[in-house]
């Protein structure tokens, strides 16, 4: 009898401990938005895994309620703040579309993955160069159909600067900054515009081929600055890591642990780099009186210090005009949203669309902004 009485107590204590640990993890994920990873880096990983941590806490809350556990309050209160952040990942889109006064500016942003990251290659037997030609052709058709006023492309690859000046010829005005890479090709960011560009520039990042470029657009007599950003990449292939774990049966627990630790150390370095890069961008923005729209591949989730800093005094087009899941990184859909269009708070958003295309490992995002 004594054993039977003791066992439920041990189980309850263990269950409560699990609830507390997961609840603390949930709270740390919220704090990642506000804490500079260069000063204290533990919360940033919890912010990165916000969705899995959220799912675990929801599951534990359901179990606690089913068991009528007195500890159900732990995940319940840990989950309440998540309501403030949920729309960063999923938008019900219940807001009525009201015809607003003002002039529209339609913007699209996409990491084109060097025009070689198409996901549906099964039915094509093309060379690497043939794949790029095919992808460019289909991007051209997409831009023609969507017809944005401004296009911001990252990981843009061309044979020469001349091609960068002539590709997608329906856009008369453009600015770009390209790095010369292997095989004498050119790689970087480009802004394509239907409106005149009065001024342009770029922000180079130390020891990196990632960068930010900007263009001051004359939009029906008003100046608007567009920033096209490609912030520091993780330099980690999550898909390769998962494949390695799933296909290699001889991996020991120690090897798996070492791989995970090494991966997180690499990731920590990129988080800190992105923090410095954001500081450079915000310094440039502070030195101009022109309203700035910030686009691009941030390589960071909405539960990050990077996103929170760039979003200050700005609105997120997905939150204001999107619907459904906002994820933009195709291999990890619907978990990972890393591509954004942020605009000044005095503007409004008429719509936001995530284009679920297979031309890159990133989905293009477009938004119609009311100036």
How would you summarize what this structure contains?
The protein is of the alpha+beta class. It contains eleven helices and 14 strands.
Question: Would you kindly provide a written description of the structure presented here, covering whatever features stand out?
Answer:
- The chain is an alpha+beta fold and 371 residues long.
- The protein has two domains: 2-88, no CATH class; 104-370, Endonuclease/exonuclease/phosphatase (Deoxyribonuclease I, Chain A).
- 39% of the residues lie in helices and 25% in strands.
- It has helices at 2-31, 42-48, 50-66, 73-79, 82-85, 128-146, 161-166, 238-247, 253-286, 305-310, 317-321, and strands at residues 90-91, 104-111, 150-158, 173-180, 186-193, 197-204, 211-219, 222-230, 292-297, 314-316, 324-325, 339-344, 348-354, 365-370.
- The strands form three sheets. It has a six-stranded mixed sheet. A six-stranded mixed sheet has the order 6-7-8-9-12-10. Strands 1-11 form a two-stranded antiparallel ribbon.
- The longest helix has 34 residues, at 253-286.
- The radius of gyration is 23 Å and the shape is globular.
- Mean pLDDT is 88; it is low at 1-7 and 236-245.
């Amino acid at each position: 009898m004594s054993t039977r009485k003791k066992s439920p107590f041990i189980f309850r204590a263990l269950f409560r401990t699990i609830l507390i640990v997961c609840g603390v993890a949930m709270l740390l994920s919220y704090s990642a938005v506000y804490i500079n990873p260069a000063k204290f880096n533990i919360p940033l990983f919890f912010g990165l895994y916000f969705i899995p941590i959220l799912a675990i806490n929801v599951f534990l809350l359901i179990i606690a309620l089913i068991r009528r556990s007195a500890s159900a309050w732990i995940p319940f209160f840990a989950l309440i703040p998540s309501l403030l952040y949920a729309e960063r990942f999923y938008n019900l889109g219940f807001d009525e579309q009201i015809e607003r006064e003002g002039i529209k500016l339609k913007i699209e942003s996409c990491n084109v993955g060097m025009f070689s990251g198409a996901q549906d290659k099964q039915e094509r037997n093309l060379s690497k160069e043939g794949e790029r030609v095919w992808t460019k052709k289909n991007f051209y058709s997409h831009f023609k159909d969507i017809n944005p006023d401004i296009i911001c492309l990252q990981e843009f690859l061309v044979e020469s600067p001349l091609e960068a000046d002539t590709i997608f010829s329906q856009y008369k005005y453009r600015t770009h900054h390209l790095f010369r890479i292997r095989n004498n090709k050119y790689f970087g960011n480009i802004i394509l515009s239907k409106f005149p560009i009065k001024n342009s520039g770029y922000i180079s990042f130390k020891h990196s081929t990632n960068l930010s470029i900007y263009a001051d657009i004359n939009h029906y007599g008003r100046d608007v600055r567009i920033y096209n950003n490609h912030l520091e990449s993780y330099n980690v292939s999550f898909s390769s890591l998962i494949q390695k774990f799933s296909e290699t049966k001889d991996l020991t627990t120690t090897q798996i642990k070492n791989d995970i630790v090494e991966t997180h150390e690499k990731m920590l370095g990129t988080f800190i780099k992105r923090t410095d890069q954001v500081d450079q961008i915000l310094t440039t923005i502070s030195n101009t009186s022109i309203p700035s729209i910030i686009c691009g591949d941030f390589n960071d989730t909405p539960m990050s210090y990077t996103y929170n800093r760039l979003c200050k005094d700005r609105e997120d087009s997905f939150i204001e005009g999107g619907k459904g899941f906002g994820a933009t990184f195709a291999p990890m859909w619907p978990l990972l949203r890393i591509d954004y269009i942020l605009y000044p708070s005095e503007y409004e958003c008429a719509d936001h669309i995530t284009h679920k295309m297979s031309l890159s490992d990133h989905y293009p995002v477009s938004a119609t902004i009311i100036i």
